[in-house]
Amino acid sequence: YPNVNIHNFTTSWRDGMAFNALIHKHRPDLIDFDKLKKSNAHYNLQNAFNLAEQHLGLTKLLDPEDISVEHPDEKSIITYVVTYYHYFSKMKALKVEGKRIGKVLDNAIETEKMIEKYESLASDLLEWIEQTIIILNNRKFANSLVGVQQQLQAFNTFQNLTPPHLRAVVAVAKELEAESYHDIKRITARKDNVIRLWEYLLELLKARRHRLELNLGLQRVFQEMLYIMDWMDEMKVTSTRIKCQQLRFL
């Protein structure tokens, strides 16, 4: 600080600039340091002592007259400066503790956001799985080759519409587990339920595809049988027509 040069605990404090600098260092909102003049010792001392008492709660152990003398009492100044030290050390500790509390609160808020995200993802995915299971359990198939082919094509398209929530649910659950979330058992149970239903859904998808492919094969056989029957009918008509012509010729 300008006009502040501390090299002892007597005369270095006599003009009051050091006391004001000490307060300004930690509470710059209380003092306009640039307006202070080294030559106005009494005002400087009175200003620092009053601010320390009113805003910092430090007892005014000294008066300006005790300091602005040729040989100020060293022990008295040391005793008074120590009260500043204890106050600002405590303030710093509280500031550090405040940052720690703030960090804990931030972590709690982030965890709460993760919980909300997890609940939303899990709910949406479970609803989608349950609806899909109902669709896959429908055993109705088309009664024509074209109809079954369309069903198989629609199934292939549907199978590619797997929602992206499955991996997200597992990832968020792992994050919460890493954060030692207090209700992790419930989170894990829901995740396991999602995985169990998903595996069941995959089994249904596999079975559905198998049934569709079997039905497609049957429809092709039926189609070929119809072609053969039509051909036989045509051959029968042709054979009858030939016989009639032969009888007429005779």
TrEMBL record:
<dbReference type="InterPro" id="IPR036872">
    <property type="entry name" value="CH_dom_sf"/>
</dbReference>
<dbReference type="InterPro" id="IPR001715">
    <property type="entry name" value="CH_dom"/>
</dbReference>
<dbReference type="InterPro" id="IPR018159">
    <property type="entry name" value="Spectrin/alpha-actinin"/>
</dbReference>
<dbReference type="Pfam" id="PF00435">
    <property type="entry name" value="Spectrin"/>
</dbReference>
<dbReference type="Pfam" id="PF00307">
    <property type="entry name" value="CH"/>
</dbReference>
<keyword id="KW-0009">Actin-binding</keyword>
<protein>
    <submittedName>
        <fullName>Spectrin beta chain, non-erythrocytic 1</fullName>
    </submittedName>
</protein>
<feature type="domain" description="Calponin-homology (CH)">
    <location>
        <begin position="1"/>
        <end position="89"/>
    </location>
</feature>
<keyword id="KW-0677">Repeat</keyword>
<dbReference type="InterPro" id="IPR002017">
    <property type="entry name" value="Spectrin_repeat"/>
</dbReference>
